[in-house]
């Protein structure tokens, strides 16, 4: 059976994030991934979640509180490109949902430049064997530009340091989302 995109993203993260680990939700959105990560890291782990919209931060905090897990996460009103200001620990896994906030303002979208900056920062923090999952929604205004910039960047990563996977269904209509997953194989040289 072929696993759909969102369940596959969770499978990838579940394979590398354990009790006590640090995880990052680079696009908190409606808090579903933050909650999922908070469950994976357990009582001794921690999640950093980022979003530039107050609405997303509030919804995410509320979702965590409803599940009694607000102590396992910090929800930060800032762009994911500011990640290294807040996260200094080694990270086991991270997720991005690129595009706009579901149910929010469709004019506020993730952008290639800031997404790539966040990926670079995460790659330096990521443990060996850690995974970054990017769920790429690209059917909106500006989505194809971000998709192309991210793909160009990840294609250039040296394969002996980072394995890059693209997972998608190629016969679906209307720009279906797909996954790019990055697995860190060894410490990277400076990417700049």
TrEMBL record:
One of its GO terms (molecular function) is methyltransferase activity. GO terms for biological process: methylation. SUPFAM superfamilies: S-adenosyl-L-methionine-dependent methyltransferases. InterPro entries: MnmM_MeTrfase, SAM-dependent_MTases_sf. Pfam families: rRNA_methylase. Keywords: Methyltransferase, Transferase. This is 16S rRNA C1402 N4-methylase RsmH.
